[in-house]
Amino acid sequence: MTSQFLTVLPPEIRNYIYELVFRCSFMARMESRYLFIEPSTGSEGSFYEIIYRGRVLALLLVNHQVSQEACACFYPKTEFAGEALALKQFLIGIGTYRRNMIRTLHLHIDLYYYGFDDVLRLLLTMQGLWTLMVRISGFRVADQLQNLIDRGILMLTGKFDVRVYAWSSLTYESVTQIEQGFDIWTRKVVWSNAKGDSEWKVHGTD
Q1: Could you tell me if residue 206 is inside a domain?
Q2: Which long-range contacts (CB under 8 A, 24 or more apart) does 197-202 make?
Q3: SS3 assignment, position 27
Q4: Domain range holding 37?
Q5: I want to staple 98 with a disulfide (CB 3.0 to 4.6 A). Which of 94, 103, 110, 206 is the partner?
């Protein structure tokens, strides 16, 4: 399909095409339009980035008109997730205009908080952000919340909805899997702050 053919289609048809492309072309867990951002691996990227993400996001580079329309479909309606360093690279790379289209981010906290301070500064500039989900480990939750405070997360107070959740796994064994267990991942919101609210709510850290 050439860009000329695409641009002569009615706007509602073009928007339907964008929705289909962005909905069906990512990893299996993207039913809710959830895109995990990986750190850059060099100029060629990883196999996953080349085969899957690259083909789909190429739609954003067709021409100015298609790029504007596709961006308006892609960025506000996709939940972006990753560790701080990867999100930092991504948010800087897409520029201010596209960054302000993002509505939901999932920030995964790693052991050393690489890139966390830079991401906080970027978050403060994101005018369109509605929700920030911060994932921490399910172990020693109170200590991790204090670490977030020490690193400056209170700067985000009242800016947008912030929900901090603990992520942990429970291993179960079934009758037919006596020797081999499997992991069930669970998450629980333990701390939150609503847009416009000056208070943070603790939901339990046990």
Answers
A1: no
A2: 197/157, 197/158, 198/157, 198/158, 200/154, 200/157
A3: coil
A4: 3-200
A5: 94
